[in-house]
Amino acid sequence: MSRTAVTSTPIHPVLAERWSPRSYDTTKSLTKADLTASFEAARWSPSANNVQEWRYIVGFRGDSTFDTIAATLAGWNTAWAPNAGALVVTIAETSNAEGQANAFALYDLGQSVAHFSVQAHHDGLHVHQVAGTDVAALKAAFNLPENWDAVTVFTVGHLADADELPEPLAEREKAPRTRRDLSETVFYGAL
Q1: What is the mean pLDDT of residues 24-50?
Q2: What CATH number is attached to the domain comprising 40?
């Protein structure tokens, strides 16, 4: 079954083909080298005033960092995310050393993660964003400074067959990809 998005106008194939699976191949491992190009893409994403206020903590399946991150997962995420080759904590510097809030930190972090995701997909890996995690526990576990916040976790790894997932996750994995119409997203003038 094709997972390529049906778009209203042609877009770059790596963007149309990128999707967020839950089924990861546990027989394949990842290394730092496997993720280097993706983190390089993330490093070169734009940021307000070139602050580059994002950081990542990476755990590979089987190491203690991975186990620490996995222990913070919630809900359905506990059923599939630990099968990924790596779990990555996204971190943003939400204020500077003087305590001034950085209004763009989350926006810039999101761009960085998006760059990672696109490069990873280009390199044959799959990424899935995970909001269901205890970010306070992550901040404490990794002893983050006061002005740095854990924001989300994402999984990265090699794709496995959707039938390896428990129901209803397998069914969700095979469901058609959908998005609201472009005309409901983009407005040229007032909403």
Answers
A1: 98
A2: 3.40.109.10
